[in-house]
Specification:
With about 240 residues, the chain is mostly helical. It has twelve helices and five strands. The longest helix is centred in the N-terminal third of the chain and has 22 residues.
Length: about 240
Amino acid sequence: MRRNGNYRRPPMNEMKFKELQEQLNIQFTNEKLLKQAFTHSSYVNEHRRKPYEDNERLEFLGDAVLELTVSRYLFEKYPMMSEGELTKLRAAIVCEPSLVEFANKESFGKYVLLGKGEEMTGGRERPAMLADVFEAFIGSLYLDQGLEKVIQFLTKTVFPKIDEGAFSHVMDFKSQLQELIQRSGNGQLQYKIQEERGPAHNREFVSAVLLNGEMLGEGAGKSKKEAEQHAAASALKALKEKKTT
């Protein structure tokens, strides 16, 4: 744009959000939505004369969209998981520490519009703020371009972490083993009770876990489920040791 014979540079905020879109390889149809996603309430409070809107409503929407898209991904990826296991895994993925990690990966913190006071007290690195911005961005992307575009974005940022097993620590041993085998595509797991020993009031079960008929691990427990968990733990340990040798 030319003014009085000189080019007028775009406002700094405008330049920041163009840079962000280039970095993400996403072009917003309505850039106001993107800007709102990165507008903290402290910035709005210091710019009351201008019609700025903070990201809290977009955060609310993004939270719901994120839960839906992650739920769908987990539902399709882990057909053997129970409802309880899926819920536990999803909670680990959409919790604040995980969202902060996702936001930092995309350098979202540098693009947030903050009030001066918030900036001076380290608000740009505040975990709650970063998690909120990530959810708000998801909400803005959903409104601007729909669910499939959100899924495309998550396929680059969130879903690979799930595939890498970054959240396996919240799953039980059987689920962790199932995930490991599914990732490597090695075949089908099967649990078999090998032995029942002891009197009826103090029964102990011995279970084996097999992969395509080959034993991976064995474990004992006071119930069949407990024995299977111990067998899966034994198999995980053996597979990890095999991988490191």
